[in-house]
Specification:
Layout lengths: L7 H6 L11 H4 L5 H7 L11 H7 L5 H5 L12 E8 L18 E9 L6 E5 L5 E4 L2 E2 L15 E2 L2 E5 L2 H19 L5 E6 H11 L2 E5 L3 E3 L4 E3 L2 E5 L1 H9 L9 H22 L7 H11 E3 L6 H8 L10 E5 L2 E4 L2 E7 L1 H12 L23 E3 L1
Parallel strand pairs: 1-8, 3-14
Antiparallel strand pairs: 1-2, 2-3, 4-7, 5-6, 8-13, 9-12, 9-17, 10-11, 15-16
Helix pairs in contact: 4-10, 7-8, 7-10, 8-9
């Protein structure tokens, strides 16, 4: 649906950091999950005045709004908030140990986080990276193309039956946001990206994440070898866990998403236990977190991130409902999935109306069916 805002000046008048009702302090307090928690929860709280400029210098934002213009879904003024969270699968630089540098970054993990009015509950919709979608024409916001050449600001051709993660790979954050908005009909308030290296460092600063595995996990590709029982995973092992695929469940990407969701809940609980808002780790955690993320330009300062994250500490894993986008395996290619149109529409309609996602939406989905989600238990 086209944006009904009318003019650029009206868009600017909404202020930075949100597109819905002007937030009070309580309304800006919100729950995030997974990759976004890694970036946001650690910059909330007090006591950062003396390191303001240091932390501000760590943050590099990306201007999603200017890249997308006004051809976006309608602003829904119901007090909720929607955020696209991507885990970057860059194969270059410090991330090179996880695979050969193929010339471009990919979105290895994608989550649409909907925070309900009042910010006491949230729903997370994971989008399988191999989902076949109609990718819209968009503007490259990443700065380079797949060959490493500077292509920022250039047009990216739309195409049918493209894998979901190609939106980020070919057009960067703005193209990923536009693709999600086209799929869902929901305007994204914010964008958060976290890469492999930042994720590892963040877990290590937290002192690890405690989980219990119910079955052995031995995966050569993710370098993970865990026996059944309780473990405190450091950054390297945590990254291995969220990337494990072949050795857990049915070996599919859908199973890996279940594993990621289980780990995210353990991560949220760990953040609460550590007491990052008041504890002695605050400065180091904030420094690591602000280096680990790439937010949109409305969250690219310490003040904005603080306002965005302050309420996270009061919310636990039990307040976050996670599903996988309703999909089925593609009849033409069993290595790909396609959205179940009617079921997916139930999901998007519920979130637009700020309502819980109905169980009927995932009843016939190939996602959320396997055993991978039961392999990891949080504490």
């Amino acid at each position: 649906m086209a944006d009904q805002s009318g003019s650029d000046s009206r868009i600017r008048s909404r202020g930075r950091g949100t597109r819905r009702k002007k937030p009070t302090k309580g309304r800006r307090a919100m729950t995030m999950a997974g990759w976004s928690v890694a970036g946001l929860v650690l910059v909330g709280g007090s006591g950062l005045g003396y390191v303001y400029f240091k932390l501000n210098g760590n943050i590099e934002g990306v201007d999603i709004n200017s890249a997308l213009g006004t051809e976006r879904p309608e602003n829904i003024d119901n007090g909720s908030m929607d955020i696209l969270v991507l885990g970057s699968d860059s194969r270059s630089g410090a991330n090179g140990e996880y695979g050969e540098d193929e010339g471009g970054a990919r979105s290895d993990t994608a989550m649409i986080v909907h925070v309900y009015e009042g910010h006491k509950k949230a729903s997370v919709v994971s989008v399988p990276r191999d989902t076949l979608i109609d990718r819209p024409r968009c503007t490259n916001s990443k700065g380079t193309d797949g060959a490493g050449s500077d292509s920022k600001g250039t047009s990216v051709t739309g195409t049918q039956r493209a894998m979901f993660n190609t939106a980020y790979e070919t057009g960067g954050p703005a193209c990923a946001v536009k693709t999600v908005e086209k799929m869902s009909g929901i305007r994204m308030d914010h964008y958060i990206e976290v890469d492999f290296t930042g994720f590892k460092k963040l877990i290590d600063e937290l002192g690890g994440v405690e989980i219990t595995t119910t079955t052995p996990i031995n995966d050569d590709k993710s370098h993970l070898d865990l026996k059944p029982g309780t473990h405190t995973l450091g950054g390297e092992q945590s990254l291995g866990l969220v990337r494990t695929r072949k050795s857990v469940g049915d070996g599919s990407d859908l199973g890996r998403i279940q594993l990621q969701q289980a780990f995210i809940k353990a991560f949220i609980n760990q953040v609460k236990d550590v007491g990052v808002f008041t504890g002695p780790k605050l400065l180091d955690l904030a420094d690591t977190a602000t280096k680990a993320i790439t937010p949109d330009s409305e969250l690219d300062s310490v003040n904005e991130l603080m306002g965005f994250a302050k309420g996270l500490s009061g919310l636990g894993a039990e307040d976050v409902h996670m599903i996988t986008l309703p999909v089925r395996y593609d009849p033409a290619d069993p290595n790909r999935v396609v959205p179940l149109e009617s079921a997916s529409q139930q999901v998007w309609t519920a979130l637009k109306q700020d309502k819980p996602i109905p169980a009927s939406a995932v009843k016939d989905s190939a996602g959320d069916k396997g055993t991978a989600g039961g392999v990891v238990k949080s504490h």
